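Student: I would love a firmer grasp of how sequence relates to backbone shape in proteins. Thank you; the sequence and its tokens follow:
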Amino acid sequence: MRAAGASAAQITAVIPHFAYARSDKKDASRISLGGRLVADLIATAGVDRVLTMTLHAPQVHGFFSVPVDHLTAIGVLADHFRADDLTDCVVVSPDLGNAKTATQFARLLGLPVAAGSKMRKADDEVVIDMSGATSPVSVRSSSTTIATGA
């Protein structure tokens, strides 16, 4: 639905961070799919295409009834970390859902990859169980706790 007299042939919504991408599943009764609702609102507003970065999950593409260009900064991030000494480093995926991305990042850096089991204790507290880890794991995040099981 276009505004009368609008001169744009096509409207692209540039959304650097689609905050509703985490609302991608119904994990309890009466919990709505907020991401789908916002995608529908964007399409209803007349957007022809969406340009966004680093969606929370691949299925978020399916929320939109218009084409989605999903960009990622994984190559730029790998370039940044290549300048560091990565001896004895491991790329750790917090859960199996992110293992594919972690594997891609690890390949770009020539590093091994590991995956943990993530539990969200609160909005600002996450515990990653790394049971089976053969050595201590450290993380550069004050809101994440790593349990090695050791």
